[in-house]
Amino acid sequence: MTVQTPRPSPQRYYIWTIGCQMNKADSERLESALVQLGMSATDGPNDADVIVLNSCVVRQAAEDKVVGMLTSLKPLKGRRPDRIVALMGCMVGPKTNGLQSRFPYVDVFMRPQEYRPLLQLLGERMGVDAEGCLSTLAPPRPGVAAFVPIIHGCDKFCTFCIIPYRRGREVSRPLADIVREAELLAGRGVREVTLLGQNVDSYGHDLPGAPDLADLLASVHAVDGLTRVRFLTSHPNDMSQRIIEAVADLPKVCEHFNLPFQAGDDGVLQVMRRGYTQDDYRRLVERIRRQVPGVSLSTDIIVGFPGETEAAFGQTLDLVRETEFDKVHVAAYSTRPGTIASRKLEDDVPWEEKKRRLAEVEALQEGILTRINARLVGQTTEVLVEGREKGKWKGRNRNDKLVFFGDPGDLLGQTVQVRVEKTSPWSLQGTVHV
Ligand code: SF4
User: Fold this and answer.
1) DSSP 3-state assignment of 388?
2) Which of 70, 295, 308, 360 would disulfide-bridge 255, Cβ 3.0–4.6 Å?
3) Is the bond leading into 415 cis (omega within 30 degrees of zero)?
4) Is it the case that residue 2 has pLDDT exceeding 50?
5) Closest ligand 1 atom number to CA of residue 167
6) What DSSP string runs through 100-118?
7) Cα 361 to middle of ligand 1, angstroms
8) Atom 4 (ligand 1): residue with closest C-alpha?
């Protein structure tokens, strides 16, 4: 008779995350469940009983990093077969057969926000019902600022984007659940929450009574202890008058909109299936700036999309130049298998040309930020202090600009007024103004 040695109960976890804020929020929520199961974090995968890779496939470079990381885990798993390896996030589609044959040493595959398969496996190993952890997934040790996912998935199907196929259709969380989570976070010391979604301004259309983001902003605004509320990312077509008014009227809601325009040329926008024209976008920006004084804007751009001529790219540069965004995230187009663009469009802009266009947008934006930030010298700006870096306090102002300043006091979590003395394209520096 052979006696089987019982497998040790998993004690330590390591979560590796790549990609957008939604992925970071998903990892924090999984971590919350693991901590509630009595587990503790390790600094790296070597000492972990459970290793989770939270993946991103929006760009090839991100996917390559995930594959590299997965490959490096194979010998670790070989040395300790009882170790659990889990792959989570956008690399995991509805069918996992292909991934299972490529990475047979991975124990669990989980789509975004699908924590259950890992928790069930952990429950079996620990001899407990791990499902109970799913009710409260707010981070156990949040910082001063925290993310709160409010809507998952996306219904838009832009031709270049894999998100709707991986994260699924839009599903909003009930308003009361979000408010309860915001209250819990405020009780744990959080002062700023960012309401997150791939398409945050379409929040609520699928809920009974169809509350919208404006309703949610008002409800979260009422939570005691919070001093700031933000939201990220908005689609220009879903940005309603009610939401703009809510930002203008609710003092805790920061004056910042992230509104990706992706391309300046109407022909390219149409092929991307973005659903608006350059003119629609300009009018929306004008309306927001008129109704929300002091507002800042950030955007996302793709250069080198199939069919983007030099003249079409020039329209993108014009829009960047005229709008004077406070932040621009620019990416060179790369084909993602599974998207409409990968099936129907020829990736016809050479890689060198894409890199040149990307560098041109970045150089233009750096000049704009140098100029617009320099205008802030001598002004006072409200900063929520989030931590320390290189001997200075660090936080963001209401416009989401990074601010550094020196002060001997313990200011973590406090809101202070900082007089701006020096600026760069990427941050402001100053001293506390009493
Ligand atoms: S709006 Fe478009 S780019 Fe954004 S997540 Fe949805 S499909 Fe992707």
Assistant:
1) strand
2) 295
3) no
4) no
5) 5
6) HHH-TT--EEE-TT--HHH
7) 21
8) 198
> Tell me, what's the pLDDT at 239?
98
In this prediction, residue 254 has a pLDDT band, given cuts at 50, 70 and 90, of very high
Q: Compute the distance between CA of residue 247 and CA of residue 270 in angstroms, rounded to an integer.
A: 30
pTM above 0.85, yes or no: yes
- Cα 356 to ligand 1 centroid, rounded to whole Å: 25
Which residue's alpha carbon is at the smallest distance from atom 8 of ligand 1? 161
Which pair of tokens denotes residue 259? 């509104």
Q: Which residue has the tokens 């707010």?
A: 138
User: How much distance in Å is there from the Cα of 157 to the middle of ligand 1?
Assistant: 6
Domains (range + CATH), the chain: 12-134 (3.40.50.12160), 145-374 (3.80.30.20), 380-432 (2.40.50.140)
Best CA proximity match to 409, nearest among 428, 388, 380: 388
For ligand 1, mutation pick of 56, 57, 170, 235 (most atoms within 8 Å of CB): 235
How far is ligand 1, taken at its centre, from the CA of residue 232, in Å? 13
Secondary structure (3-state) at 226 = coil
Q: How far is the CA of 344 from the centre of ligand 1 (A)?
A: 18
Can you tell me the distance from the alpha carbon of 116 to that of 102, in angstroms, rounded to the nearest whole number? 23
Atom number of ligand 1 nearest to Cα 164: 7
* pLDDT per residue as tens digits for the range 339-381: 999 999 999 999 999 999 999 999 999 999 999 999 999 999 9
Q: Using a 6 Å CB cutoff, which residues line ligand 1? A: 154, 156-158, 161, 163-164, 198-199, 235
